[in-house]
Design a protein that fits this description.
three-stranded antiparallel beta sheet
């Protein structure tokens, strides 16, 4: 990711295999990135903290992700993933608002 103020490249997300899906999300609690990877994980990253706040193990390579923060009052949000196994999955986020 490029820091627009300094012009420097900043690493925010890391997986053990290539990242194939990225979604930027603004929520009432801050800015987040959701990433999906060939390492069969989906991670929710707090941009301000530059740290993963949730990691979910999928059954195959993750090719796409979409996230909706706070789907109901008091919830932590949810996301959908799709990948090599041909299944779209609905997940509840464990760490971000």
């Amino acid at each position: 990711m490029l820091d627009m103020f300094t012009g420097q490249s900043v690493q925010v997300a890391q997986h053990s295999e290539p990242v194939k899906a990225v979604r930027w999300v603004e929520s009432p609690n801050g800015s987040y990135l959701v990433t999906g990877s060939w390492d069969k994980t989906i991670k929710v990253w707090d941009i301000g903290a530059r740290a993963a706040v949730s990691t979910v193990q999928d059954t195959g390579e993750v090719w796409s992700v979409s996230w909706r923060p706070q789907v109901a009052v008091g919830s932590s949000g949810a996301f959908v993933s799709g990948g090599e196994d041909g299944v779209a999955r609905w997940w509840r986020s464990a760490g971000a608002g």
